[in-house]
Amino acid sequence: MTKQEAIHFLQEHLKSMKYLESAMGVLSWDMEVMAPVKGIEYRSEVLGYLSVEHHKLATDTRIGCALNALENESDLMQVEQKLVDFFKDSFEKNTKIPESLQRDLTVATSKGGQYWKQAKEKQDYSIFKPYLQKVIDLVIKQAECVGYEGHIYNACLDDFEKGMTVEELDRIFPPLRDGLVKLLNQIKESRVCIKLHPSGEFDKARQEKLTNQVLDMMGYDYHEAGRIDETEHPFTTSLGIGDTRITTHYYEDNLESGLFSSIHEGGHAIYDQNMPHELSDYGLDEAPSMGIHESQSRFYENIIGRSLPFWKGYYKKLQELFPEYGWTTLEEFYGMINAVKPSLIRTEADEVTYSLHVIIRYEIEKLMMSGEVTVDELPALWNQKYEEYLGITPTNDSEGVMQDVHWSEALIGYFPSYALGNLYGAQFYHQMKKEIPNVEEQLEAGDLSQVFMWLKEKIHSQGNLYSPSELVEKVTGEKLNPMYFLDYLNEKYSKIYKL
Ligand SMILES: [Zn+2]
């Protein structure tokens, strides 16, 4: 195989995989959004079949032949090298994991999910424990097969945050944790009383109008290149070039939940819409990592969406649509959407406590992978960390150690990306303010276009050309530094809670 032939083969192969992913994406979206209940079982079988076909493509031995042909090629273009790296990485990983282990993992996660659900409902950890043990054993085995340098947990991290290591997270997370705990304790001491949300019946049609207005301002094109639908759990899905959809969930007794989750998903969607699609033949129209993707959704949701400047410009419009907020001043509203309250549930956490939930999981996962904690010890360790960092203790294991679905699905190493998203976002914002000094005035004027353009130029259009750490350095001129996020929080919450 010549160099040209090998590159051409990889490009065509990538295209086949992407077409299949697109088809699976449409079927999954349909299953979540509109398929009738009685059609779910058959649909799941179809999806199972297609995912097997996808796995066959991903492990096709011809990939190995093409990679061999390119082995000693030194004059590849940057984009070609990226294509080769992508296949090398995924192909080697896929082929290093024996089929029997792959099968064991599929069985273990399917059972794990089932028993996790049951155990959670019954608040009985002992039901889930043996299945969790099985999953951990298999993930350790998988890490051994794939190989790693340094800590065994590095093998897990690599799946979600390319290049991220325990050594790096141990540099970043401890100062972040200590800073957050300190801020949280100051907030707990504050005498400022945040007013309660006005109650009312916020009908869906009005909520939809509000959400669409905000998403239009953000620059999410759901008119010709996307859709907004409703599902139980909101998500974003890109089904191919020109088709990035989001879902949201409106609650009639709560205006803010639907609004902020739509802004969050909108942030993900804008990213996907502005990828360098001209590089799709090289697989580069993708985010470099989960954490970078999350940085964009959290940027819009929190840094913009929960900021005072944004609401200075927009609150009147909200009040026009929702007279229920007529008695709530802008400052009171700003306090409400930023209220800090330690809770046991990660997904409902505020901006200050959210990353603490993640750090707890990171610290525990690391010990799980190195065998320093047993499944018997997990519930007590979990509760002890919640008491230590957040000052609250779960009353049962369902709101404690069994809270998230991730472990039952063998998604160990996923959590850190959530917190990294916050850190990347704050560091990007610090740089954005240097380059657009009047960004707050623009927000007050209801103009998000320069924010959009900046993110598009610096981050979205870079696709997967750089690793997460390279991208952060390229955009901000320095390595990931947790102080930007802490500074941002300290400044914001000192004002809200008069610290
Ligand atoms: Zn997200």
How would you describe this protein?
By secondary structure, the protein is an all-alpha fold. It folds into 2 domains: 1-96, Methane Monooxygenase Hydroxylase, Chain G, domain 1, CATH 1.20.58; 142-498, Neurolysin, domain 3 (Orthogonal Bundle), CATH 1.10.1370. Helices cover 63% and strands 2% of the residues. It has a 3-stranded mixed beta sheet with strand order 1-3-2, sandwiched between helices. Helix 1 packs antiparallel against helix 2 and helix 5 packs antiparallel against helix 6 (125-146). The termini are far apart. The mean pLDDT is 96. Bound molecules: zinc ion (ZN). The site of zinc ion has 4 residues, from helix 10 and helix 11. Its cofactor is Zn(2+). Zn(2+) binds at residues 264, 268, 294. It catalyses: Release of a C-terminal amino acid with broad specificity, except for -Pro.
The gross shape turns out to be: globular
Write down the domain tally.
2
DSSP helix fraction: 55-70%
The end-to-end distance, rounded to whole angstroms, is 67 Å
- Helix count equals 20
Bound compounds, each kind once, are:
zinc ion
% residues in beta strands: under 5%
According to CATH, what is the topology of the largest domain?
Answer: Neurolysin, domain 3
Features:
2 domains; 20 helices; three-stranded mixed β-sheet; metal-binding; 2% strand; carboxypeptidase; binds zinc ion; metal ion binding; 499 residues; mainly alpha; Neurolysin, domain 3; Methane Monooxygenase Hydroxylase, Chain G, domain 1
